[in-house]
Every structure is written in C-alpha cells, then in structure tokens.
Amino acid sequence: MSSANQLLAEICGVGTDPVRGGYSRHLFAPAERELREWFTAAARARGLRVDTDRNANLWAWFGAPGADAVVTGSHLDSVPGGGAYDGPLGVVCALAAFELLRAEGFSPRRPLAIVVFAEEEGGRFGVPCLGSRLSTGTLAPERALALRDTDGVTLAEVARAAGHDPAWFGRDVETMGRIGAFVELHVEQGKGLIHRDAPIAVGSGIIAHGRWRFSFTGQGNHAGTTLLRDRCDPMLPAAELVTAVRRLAATVPQARATVGRLVPVPGGTNVIAARVDLWLDARVPAPGSTRALVAEITERAEAVAEQEGCTVEVREESYEGAADFDPALRDRLAGLLGDAPILATGAGHDAAVLAPFVPTAMLFVRNPSGISHAPEEYAEPDDIDHGTTALARVLRELAG
Ligand code: GLV
Ligand code: MN
Ligand code: MN
Fold it and tell me: How far, in Å, is the centroid of ligand 2 from the Cα of 244?
C-alpha cells in the first residue's frame, strides 16, 4: 500500500523552479498539466472514477457519483516558487485515506469523492480559487475568461488550448449540488501547531482577505537626459506606498498587508517607468476592517501619486469575506480526533469559498518551519501519516 509520503515523492520533480527555487505549478502550464495526468492515473489505479467538471476541477469518486457526497481534496497548483505541500498535501492524504478505506472494505453510505480545484493560488491569472468561485457562481465566467496572464494570454485561450471548452465555464449547480460536506486537509501555514505542540488541528475559520492592484501612471522617459525636476516617475509613489502599507497596517490589530509583486512598465534599467503596477494583499480579522484598511492605503496612494505628478488607479481584483466553518462539524471532528486543537488561519482556501454553501471543515497538519509560500514549507513524514489517518477517520465518520 502506498502512503501519502510515497505519493508526494512521485511528484517531487514536477514543476521545480530553477530560477526562484521551490515549485511553480501554474494553471494549464506543462507542470500543472502533468500533475493533472498524474492525479488521474493515481486515482484510477486505486479504482476511483475520475472526471473533469465544467470549470476544469478534477473529481475522483470512491463509488458512483451522487447527492449528499462527502468530499475532500485541495489543489495542485502553486504560488510562484512555492513549497511542496500547500495543496498537494490535501490531495495525497485524500488518495492515501481512500486507499486505507478501500483496504478495510469500507462501504460508504454516502457518496465519497476527492476534488482537485483549479487555480487555487491565482498564480497565473491573479484571482485565487478560480475553480471553486466559478463553480459556486461567486465569480462570473465572463470576468474569469477575460483574465490575462503575464504574457497577455486569456484564461479562455489557455483553457481551450488545454482541451476545456470555455463556453462551459460558470456556475455548476449539478456538481456543487452533490456536495453534502467538504473537508479540506492542508499543511498549516504559520506557527499555530508548533505553539500547540500537536500534529493536527481542526480549522475554525479564515479571515477576510483580498487583492488590490494599484497602477501608478507617470511619463516614461530617458534616464540620462531627463532632469530630476522634469520627471513624473511612478516608481516614487510606488516605493512610498510600499512603506506606507507597512506603517498603516501596523496600526490595526492583527492586520496583515503585503506588497509581494511590483512591476514597472516597460521595465528598463535606463528607462524612467511609464507605469508601475503593484499588488496589495490585505487581511484583517475584525469584521469590515480589511476593506477599511485598503481605503486608508488608497487615500495615501492618491496623495503620494499627486506629489510626483502621477495618477493612480486602484482595482479590487478579488475579495473573500471571513469564513466561519460549520461549528457543529468543527466540534464533531475535533472530538473525533481526540480533542484536536482548533485553529483559525489567515491563509485562503477553496474551503472558504464553499463554506457559505455547504458544511465545511479543515484539517491542518503541523509545519515545523512555520513557513509557507516558500521552499522552506515542510511537514514531517510522521505528521503526514497522522494527517492521512485523521482524514480517513473523518471520512469513515461522515460517510459511514
Ligand atoms: C493562499 O494560499 C492564500 O492564502 O493566498
Ligand atoms: Mn497557498
Ligand atoms: Mn493551499
């Protein structure tokens, strides 16, 4: 019998990033397509029935598909230069848990499935949880299909090239309607389980979070001939905003605000940029506070743009309100897992998208590095095995 650790080893060479380190596995790029094929083969080898839904999410069914299903799973795409566990851990533990159930002759009373959601990280098209948002109808297909990657190619174009008909993308009442409960297992992405000295936790909720693009526009010009007083250089307000984001967020309890991506256009060493795009990721636990912080940051962006004779345009690219996982399910799973600790998280997940629609829960596996979205993300093999047995227990309880 193969363990989740062995399954992870099978994909450890797929999508390694020689430039950034870690993994870059982006929607419909060769590495991600290879992982889709790997998942399909691994699931079929375990006797699961695999299909792809209208929004390019993969499904593997333990028996016949049907209503009121207990669904687990996660994603296989990554952030640029990400770790090996964020996403794949939930998929390999699901496959290994299904194998355990199969081996013991488990006969579920409810349908049982693994889902692999598409583009959870938004690493290629900028909007996270594309597969689950499209399927639940929380993102309009017209908007999603028009999204462009950094090469200017639309989602519609890459989907078509990968064999998915964009005309089918959109709310999928039939597929989503089958989910009776959703349980996502995920590597813990902070230090919550290190502090609690436990291998597994049950999730309580996810804080509100979103992504905003700030485009500062000035005048592109020659770096050697344009005197400083004659410049409208959008790099200056962009730089000011980066430090203002930290300063403003530091005044709000528990706020997280990040500029992790900044792109000067056209981007030449001897060229004053014509435009600088920067992306803000903001997350604040107190209700209503995430957008309030962004409003303050926007005010500051307008002020610093004006000082340099530039303009700024702000666009909300995605927003996910706070998710509170089903309290009855949360407590039931924590009890089942020997009073496992209960943990809230600042990381986003497809589980947050599904939570308003179906009873949803999350299991977290300890990450001794406390680091995620970076190559140092880690989970001990023993803890991964704990994750598999915990998930199998949960599935047995919910579907048995
Ligand atoms: C996804 O992992 C996110 O939290 O952005
Ligand atoms: Mn992630
Ligand atoms: Mn993830």
Answer: 25
Ligand 1 lined by 87 (C-beta under 6 Å):
no
| Helix-helix angle 289-307:235-249, to 10 degrees | 150
How far is the centre of ligand 3, averaged over its atoms, from the C-alpha of 348 (Å)? 7
DSSP code, position 351: H
**CATH numbers and ranges of domains, the chain:** 3-207+322-399 (3.40.630.10), 209-320 (3.30.70.360)
Q: What sign results for the dihedral spanned by CA atoms 90, 94, 100, 104?
A: positive
pTM for this model (two decimals): 0.97
Closest ligand by atom to 89 CA: 3
Q: Encode pLDDT of 162-205 as tens digits.
A: 999 999 999 999 999 999 999 999 999 999 999 999 999 999 99
What residue's CA is closest to ligand 1, atom 5?
348
Distance CA 369, CA 312 (A): 38
Between the CA of 207 and the centroid of ligand 2 the distance, in Å, is 14
pLDDT tens digit string along 284-338? 999 999 999 999 999 999 999 999 999 999 999 999 999 999 999 999 999 999 9
Please state, in angstroms and rounded to a whole number, the distance separating the CA atoms of residues 213 and 39. 34
Nearest atom in ligand 1 to 120's CA: 1
Q: 80 CA distance to ligand 2 centroid (A)?
A: 10
189 touches 181 (CB < 8 A): no
